[in-house]
């Protein structure tokens, strides 16, 4: 009986923690299909509405080389959370550009969490609760201990790589 109870708890825990990656839903506020919750990069770049802008914008963006050199020295074991909307114009521009910066830095994708929200900037199962998301995209940079260092909200003040450098310089 005790073993059966333990197995039941394990199965329940797995169901609660296992989120469907790249989940598609119909968003009433925009009357279109969107991605929601945890996503993979592959999932977002293959989502039809997002892909149509992702590929050309990614290809066209050239991060500032001098800023990248400085970033390379500072960006080590940080973690980044990207909260975005597949329906959002700013997300369609800034997410591909942000990935172009991360790719230029050879930043490990395992250190990037991607979360898609609906038109009300909500996700399911409380996965963005406490993040205080007002606008998307929001790029949140954390240190290796999980402490927020800073964020880029909607559009960068300078450039994505410039704003990222400013956040990391505050830490140094």
UniProtKB/TrEMBL annotation:
Gene3D superfamilies per UniProt: Glutaredoxin
Keyword Zinc applies: no
UniProtKB keywords: Signal
Signal sequence residues: 1-18
One family name in Pfam for this protein: Thioredoxin_9
SUPFAM superfamilies: Thioredoxin-like
Keyword Signal in record: yes
The Thioredoxin domain, residue ranges: 7-172
Protein name, entry field: Thioredoxin
Gene source species: Pedobacter yonginense
């Amino acid at each position: 009986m005790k073993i059966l109870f333990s197995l039941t708890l394990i199965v329940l825990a797995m169901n609660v923690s296992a989120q469907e990656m790249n989940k598609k839903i119909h968003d009433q506020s925009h009357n279109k299909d969107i991605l929601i919750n945890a996503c993979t990069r592959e999932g977002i770049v293959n989502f039809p509405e997002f892909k149509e802008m992702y590929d050309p914008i990614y290809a066209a963006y050239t991060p500032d080389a001098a800023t990248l050199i400085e970033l390379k020295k500072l960006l080590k074991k940080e973690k980044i959370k990207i909260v975005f909307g597949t329906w959002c114009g700013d997300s369609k521009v800034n997410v591909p550009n942000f990935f172009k910066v991360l790719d230029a830095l050879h930043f490990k994708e395992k250190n990037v969490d991607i979360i898609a929200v609906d038109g009300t900037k909500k996700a399911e199962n409380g996965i963005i609760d406490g993040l205080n998301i007002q606008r998307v995209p929001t790029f949140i940079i954390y240190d290796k201990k999980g402490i927020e260092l800073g964020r880029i909200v909607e559009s960068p003040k300078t450039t994505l790589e410039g704003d990222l450098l400013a956040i990391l310089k505050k830490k140094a």
